[in-house]
Amino acid sequence: MIAFHPQMFVRVEQLEGPRSPVPRPLDSGFQEGRLYRVLGVYNPSETSDAYFILANDREELWFICQRHLRFAGLHDTAAHHLPGPDPVLGSAAD
Predict the structure, then answer these.
(1) pTM passes above 0.90
(2) What does the alpha-carbon distance between residue 11 and residue 81 come to, in Å, rounded to a whole number?
(3) Phi, psi of 8 (to 5 degrees)
(4) Max alpha carbon distance in the chain (Å)?
(5) pLDDT for 32
């Protein structure tokens, strides 16, 4: 079992190249510059990768490899998507 904080948000930083994990989030309805609430985490026993359950901008649920994601903070909000970090303030708008 993997525990996670219910207010945890991540941002997509998609890996490129022939060995990058699939699905590739930017090809699957996610956007750079947005933050996504983590809905769940799954770690299959046959791999060292963890897969985060995220809702994309088309309201589809996807299992995205942690290698495509970066921690974006804990945000006390009911929203599932947030705008990305403010370049001046360095934090996401709530």
Answers:
(1) no
(2) 10
(3) -80, 130
(4) 42
(5) 92
